[in-house]
Amino acid sequence: MIPQMEPWFGDEETRAVTEYLEAGGWITEFRKTREFEEAIAEYTGARYCIVTNNGTISLTLAAMAGGVTAGDDVLVPNYTMIATPNSVQMFGANPVFVDVDPQTLCMRLDLAKQAMTDRTTALMFVTPNGRYPREGIEAWREFASNHNLALIEDSAQSLGSHYPGGVHIGCAGDVGSFSFSAPKVISTGQGGAIVTNNDDIAERVRRLKDFGRASGGNDIHDSIGFNFKFTDVQAAIGLEQMRKLPWRVERKKRILERYQSNLAGTPEVTFFEQDLVNTTPWFIDIMTERRDALVTFLKEKGIGTRTMYPPINAQNAYSRPGSYPVSEEVGRRGLWLPSASQLTDDQIDTVCAAIAEFYGA
Ligand SMILES: Cc1ncc(COP(=O)(O)O)c(C=O)c1O
């Protein structure tokens, strides 16, 4: 079986967890977590990094700390993982869906402008598979600043990806968010991180995730907060995963190149644009003909795939009318191929040969 995705932990993670436990830590977040946050801040160039228990809650906290409140409208792309809109729905804000660019799959600026209401206070910008917007992130910053909107980057799929010019994705707006769930380029099983250069946002996020405490170890609460803390066991794993990140970033790029070259003669498969100088493909995403039959054919050959996200407005969770041609087409024809960093060249060739066989090439 060649899975569509699987996390990758080795002896280094086993050793790190064992050493941590043998040293008698409290498991809950403490020194290891601070080290993990520092490693992410250093890698991304952010002034602050605060980790949370997952990448959905980190978006919720980013939005709350960015000033979004119940009843506000938040612009989100109609092609994304459902966590993006749900993260603001969680505290009573209203996600407003905007269609995406057919190549970058990022929210479209012209459509976002049309979707603005007098209740819009933020936009949650997703960078799918590490891709950045065609208009340039500067144009989005200008739009956000002209309308006094918080610019929140949902960069869950973008660790290892940069905007042209070198700013790490997640660090161009007011606040950015990453996920370390099992399928991500590095994982702590579950986990999320908030990055920001803004002192007030960092302070608010720290309080929100720790019962509203101004500092640890006391029971004085100046503001309302909750418990979205991490654990030092996860941080011990995360630190080892961070050391492996540069290799994985390079490998992911080479994996995409091999797929592209192997499938160049199969016109039924098309790739989305991907800037391999600045960005890292998290998953291998393609548009296909006869997708569902292809999925079944590959499954019978022991090859795992995953259909790309359906349009959010059409999910039962939202059931909102509207026309979103690009996200609808991706929902019908988009497919993720095996994409794990540990995938071998031979396995990529096996997958491509099976796809060519399906299309009779
Ligand atoms: C774009 C996007 N946002 C948010 C999330 C949610 O992250 P988590 O699973 O860590 O809650 C994901 C997870 O896949 C994602 O892809």
Topology of this structure?
Blueprint: H1 11-22, H2 31-44, E1 48-52, H3 57-65, E2 73-77, H4 83-89, E3 94-98, H5 109-115, E4 120-126, H6 137-146, E5 150-154, E6 175-179, E7 192-196, H7 199-209, H8 232-262, E8 270-271, E9 284-287, H9 291-300, E10 306-307, H10 325-333, E11 334-337, H11 345-358
Parallel strand pairs: 2-3, 2-4, 4-5, 5-6
Antiparallel strand pairs: 1-7, 6-7, 8-9, 9-11, 10-11
Quick structural gist:
The chain has 361 residues and is of the alpha/beta class.
Word description of this protein:
With 361 residues, the chain is α/β, with parallel strands linked by helices. It is 37% helix and 14% strand. The protein has 11 helices and 11 strands. It has helices spanning 11-22, 31-44, 57-65, 83-89, 109-115, 137-146, 199-209, 232-262, 291-300, 325-333, 345-358; strands spanning 48-52, 73-77, 94-98, 120-126, 150-154, 175-179, 192-196, 270-271, 284-287, 306-307, 334-337. A 7-stranded mixed beta sheet has the order 1-7-6-5-4-2-3, sandwiched between helices. A 4-stranded antiparallel beta sheet has the order 8-9-11-10. Helix 3 (57-65) crosses helix 4 (83-89). The relative contact order is 0.17. The model has no long low-confidence stretch (mean pLDDT 97). Bound molecules: pyridoxal-5'-phosphate (PLP). Pyridoxal-5'-phosphate (PLP) is lined by residues 54-56, 80-81, 83-84, 126, 154, 156-157, 179, 181, 192.
